[in-house]
Write a structure and sequence with these properties.
8-stranded mixed sheet, 6-stranded mixed sheet, alpha+beta, Hypothetical upf0131 protein ytfp, EC 3.6.1.13, Nucleoside Triphosphate Pyrophosphohydrolase
Length: 385
């Protein structure tokens, strides 16, 4: 098999090993250059492209002794992004060698700044490796183009796992680490926008013995930012209403649910910025002062879903209940601006039956007097559309 020349993210050994599905000895990677070419960031994206560039050299690594199955795995990873193998001659310390390189389709991506592997590793390395683990699960099961279509969502999951590396305090609860849990993955489950993983698990019990192996499943979701818009001067909150599939499949005769403004945190996005973005998209308001409420797992027994919850001060006098949401996400969202006391009455009556909104309103009740003393600090205020 002709050696392959890597010039971008696959020069990062942890990513290369995930894509190949095996460990790689660093000594088997030979430094090489591709004359007459240069590597750039794909403009607006987190990966590189290589293009012809007279009098320049693209630096990378050469890997030989690849099996047909390994090349197929590499091609699955690259093909979905519009890259094809082409033969080239590269320069190595032992002289020129014929190799193959993944080139992007002509005109598919535009070049940005010169590529920096170190910058990519710092900003995108961890989450891309985590994302590739999910992506490569689909190799041999899903067409590369279809798998690539959900790459941004897989990357958001990788970002969630990166944010999870900064855990909450462990003062009352056990400070036992991940090494106290053993996982054996089983075949089956589902891979898509969401994932369902089947596995066996055992863990170190409080008496220091290991539990028995137990078959389990987990629903792999995303981190989400939730925000409760609050007007301290008018003492009003903004709630949104939309149809939800969970109540439909539970058999609830009233599947329209009152909720806080919320949305999935995109890869690399700060959760507070996500909350501000969702307030504009779903309710057509711009938030001023935003304050963290809490960060919580939605249902830690069976899902990875994690909520970053905020209160956002806004001038709701100039906002109006309206239909919002993004058409391309098939959102049909109605806003309600109601008094704080009315909202608490809806909690008591059970009409507000979405757990996050109940939790956030109870948090607001605890901090109500303090927030009422604050100015709105909304700059600008009111509708933005």
């Amino acid at each position: 098999m002709t050696p392959l020349f890597f010039y971008g993210t696959l020069c990062h050994l942890p990513l290369l090993e995930v894509v190949l599905g095996r460990p790689v000895e660093a000594a088997s990677l030979v430094p090489a250059t591709l004359s007459g070419h240069a590597v750039y960031w794909a403009d607006g994206h987190s990966f590189p492209i290589v293009q012809a560039a007279p009098s320049q050299e693209a630096h990378g690594l050469l890997l030989a002794d690849l099996t047909n199955d390994e090349v197929a795995r590499l091609s699955f990873y690259e093909d979905g992004f519009g890259y094809d193998l082409k033969p080239v001659s590269v320069n190595t310390p032992d002289g020129p060698r014929i190799a193959q390189v993944y080139f992007p389709h002509d005109g598919l991506w535009q070049p940005g700044a010169p590529w920096s592997l170190n910058d990519w590793v710092r900003d995108w390395g961890f989450m891309t490796v985590e994302t590739a683990k999910d992506f490569m699960r689909q190799c041999g099961q899903t067409a590369a183009e279809r798998a690539q279509a959900i790459w941004p969502f897989l990357l958001a999951r990788g970002w969630a796992r990166q944010m999870a590396q900064t855990p909450a305090a462990a003062t009352l609860r056990s400070d036992a680490g991940r090494d106290a849990v053993e996982i054996r993955e089983r075949p089956g489950g589902f891979e898509g926008f969401f994932a369902l993983r089947s596995f066996d698990v055992r863990f170190r019990r409080f008496d220091r013995t290991m539990s028995a192996w137990m078959p389990r499943e987990v629903f792999v979701a995303f981190d989400a930012a939730l925000v409760l818009p609050y007007d301290p001067q008018a003492d009003t909150v903004l709630l949104i209403e939309q149809m939800r599939n969970g109540p439909v499949f539970r058999g609830d005769p009233h599947p329209w649910v009152l909720e806080p403004v919320a949305g999935l945190v995109d890869a690399g996005e700060d959760p507070e910025l996500c909350a501000r973005r969702e307030a504009r998209e779903e309710a057509d308001i711009t938030l001023g002062h935003v304050e963290k409420m809490c960060q919580v797992y939605a249902a830690p027994g069976y899902t990875t879903e994690y909520f970053h919850c905020f209160v956002g001060l806004a001038d709701l006098d100039r906002a109006s209940g309206q239909i919002g949401g993004l058409d391309d996400e098939h959102e049909d969202i109605r806003s309600h601006i109601i008094g704080f006391d009315h909202a608490m009455a809806l909690v008591d009556s059970g009409e507000i039956n979405a757990g996050p909104l109940v939790m956030m309103l109870l948090w607001l009740a605890r901090h109500h007097d303090r927030l009422r003393a604050m100015p709105r600090q909304a700059q600008p205020t009111g509708p933005v559309g």
